[in-house]
Design a protein that fits this description.
It is a single chain. With 75 residues, this protein is mostly helical. The chain folds into 2 domains: 30 residues; 30 residues, no CATH class. Helices cover 72% and strands 0% of the residues. The model has no long low-confidence stretch (mean pLDDT 76).
């Protein structure tokens, strides 16, 4: 009987440890906030469309995406 109780106690301790680790991971994720909501395939497709429409000095320019997200342009 005592052996069973000790085994159950150990299992509960492992479960509590796992829960605490998951809570810590969740807190870290919440502190970072949502990022990368778009898939890389979508971004690549949009990037290639933008690249085809822009002059050479603007194609594959990372600032174009930043400015597009800000919504300050006409596009």
């Amino acid at each position: 009987m005592a052996k069973d109780i000790n085994e159950l106690r150990n299992r509960v301790m492992r479960i509590e440890q796992t829960i605490n680790e998951l809570i810590e991971r969740l807190n870290r994720l919440e502190s970072v906030g949502p990022q990368g909501t778009r898939t890389s395939n979508t971004a690549a497709r949009e990037g290639s469309t933008i690249s085809n429409e822009l002059p050479d000095f603007l194609s594959n320019n990372p600032w174009i995406e930043v400015l597009r997200r800000r919504g300050g342009g006409n596009g």
